[in-house]
């Protein structure tokens, strides 16, 4: 379940989950980029869809690929009829596990986020 489908948190409140591992950080931006690559079939198209440059998108993919035992994204060489990128099983697992963790965290945090939101002005 993604944040978009989690109706439990108040409309104006949002829990943001970042996982800091010794190898690096996994957070909503990198996971959203992987999801966009899965939809778009290329790093550049995913970057455009997210409003980021190809270089920024490529740097994030490279960072993820360096962190994991197996790459999250497989880039295909360009040229006539070539190019593009696809998620590997490791990339798909990363998305699945992050979104499951995010959903569990949202469910656990909901009473506290609701309480914090009630303390805020306006």
Automatic annotation (TrEMBL):
Segments forming domain HTH lysR-type: 32-92
One Pfam family here: HTH_1
Protein name: LysR family transcriptional regulator
InterPro entries with a match to the protein in the record: LysR_HTH_N, Molybdate_resp_trans_reg, WH-like_DNA-bd_sf, WH_DNA-bd_sf
Gene3D superfamilies linked: Winged helix-like DNA-binding domain superfamily/Winged helix DNA-binding domain
